[in-house]
Structures are given as structure tokens and as C-alpha cells.
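Appendix B, record 7
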Amino acid sequence: MPNTTSTDPSAPPRPRHRHAAGPAIAILRGGTGDHVEDVVATLVDAGVRAIEITTNTPRWREGIAWAAERYGTAASIGVGTVLEPRQLDEAAAAGAVFAVSPHLDADIGERAHERGLGWYPGAATPTEIVRAWQLGARAVKVFPAAQLGGPAFLKQVLAPLDFVDVIPTGGIGVEDASEYLAAGAVAVGLGSPLVGDALTTGDLTALRSRAERLVAGLAR
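C-alpha cells (predicted):
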């Protein structure tokens, strides 16, 4: 399902895509698998409306299924670190509505479309970003965003590629997330800077504080 883009300078501006659940995607990765439900509940209660549970998180299928059943109408639940198309079958069966990869793989994109999942492949260069968009990405995960140059890099890339919806991810902190939206991102993905050690220790108090600060900062 390729994306098409108008090059007519007289055409009205293309509406900016917004991730269906809001401008922040919380990335849950690793831990013991014992605290996923509590972490998801805390994030949603704090106002985070998109949760990505990665395939290298213990019991990720169960986590997605629980979160989708409990919060499917209040938040978008997705699968992350998708490395093989078959993982999309399992994620869709569990109730995921979007899929994220650290890389660009056309076969994964095709399977995501077949399963009705929003597809967010990873890309780092302008060539990769455009190719991902042409292959039908709903938005392109620019990764690792901070190491690539942060908001300044994103602003430069989007100057000629302003038709592409991007979700920078990797090294983005709670306090600087809004700078990426100001640079043109449609959403931001945050992993350990937001989640911290909550998936390992179950520290929900600190997690709630970070999540509330993130939501407040992105709302300004």
C-alpha cells in the first residue's frame, strides 16, 4: 500500500498525521515480565495513550493481550522490535494495532498491511526514510534519533521531506521530547528515559512522575 505525495505547490498543505493515541509512545522493553500490567496501567492513568511492548520483553504476547483487553478503547497497544513477519501474526492475534521495527523490511510491511496494523519501520538516512514512506509506512521511526543529531537533524531532514510523518525514537528524554515535535515530528517514542527500571523493580511512583511530566510537556 504505497504512499503518494502531491508535488503541486498550489495544493493545500497536507494535514499532519497524528499518532491515533497521542504524541508519545511509551516503549516497554525487557524486565522480568512480572510488572508489565502495572507499568501499562500507570502510564495510561498518567495520560500516555500509546504503549509499545517489544518482542524481547518476557511474556510480550500476554502483555499485549492484557493491555489490549483492558485499555483497547483508551490507548493504542502495539508491538515493537518486530524482526520477522510471523511476529505480526502473533501480535495481531493478541490485539496489537500497530507494529514497530528498528529497521526497514518490506516483507514486514506487507504482512503488517495484511494484518491491518499500522506500520512504523526504522530508518536513519533520507534515502531510508523516503523508501519506508514509499512502501506504505504510516509513519517512519527515525532511529536512533538523539545519536543522529536530535531535533536539529530532524529539522534538516524534514525541510525537503516535509511530506513524511516521522516518529523519532532512541535517546529522547522526558524533558526534551517536545523539541522533536517542534522540529516536525508527529510523535516521539520513549523507552528507558520514561520507563526507567519500573519493568524490573516495579517502581511505579517514579514512573508516574516521569509520565506526568512528559504528558504536560508535550501539551504545551
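Remarks on this record: The radius of gyration is 16 Å. DSSP finds eleven helices and nine strands in the chain.
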